[in-house]
Amino acid sequence: MNKDEALKLALEALKRTGNIAGFAHEREQAAITAIREALEQPVQERYFCQRCGKRRGGDVNYIHTCTPPDDNALQQIKRFAALVAAAEREACAKVCDWYVDSSSDHEAGTAMNIQDAIRARGQA
């Protein structure tokens, strides 16, 4: 049963109640009016953007953006990207730490140079 069918059943029940008593109370009449108005509303398309009028598609993973992000949101995204990049650089530098601790002097020196270069990218 969909919404419209449920509203029609409720409307019919309210009408019968009023007919049995011979009149409809004010609240019942207000409910009948509200249900009729709701039933007169056009059926809204499920995957339709109310803001821009664009069809969004039926895929739940589809991301619809009809307005560009505001400056604050853009700054937050950039800050988040910087945090992710810093964490990735540090993870790579830690791999080099392992090579420094477990390798020969020549390999350890190379690993230290790579490690310093990785961490320096975060400072630039």
What do you see in this structure?
With 124 residues, this protein is an all-alpha fold. The chain has two domains: 38 residues; 53 residues. The chain is built from four helices and no strands. Helix 1 runs antiparallel to helix 2 and helix 3 packs antiparallel against helix 4. The longest helix has 32 residues.
Largest sheet at a glance? none
Got a strand count?
0
List low-confidence stretches.
none
Order of helices and strands: HHHH
What class do helices, strands and sheet pairing give? Answer: mainly alpha
* C-alpha termini separation: 62 Å
Output mean pLDDT: 78
Helix content: 55-70%
Q: Total number of helical segments? A: 4
Number of domains as seen in the coordinates = 2
Radius of gyration: 32 Å
Strand content: under 5%
Overall 3D shape: rod-shaped
Q: Looking at the chains present, what oligomeric state does this protein adopt?
A: single chain
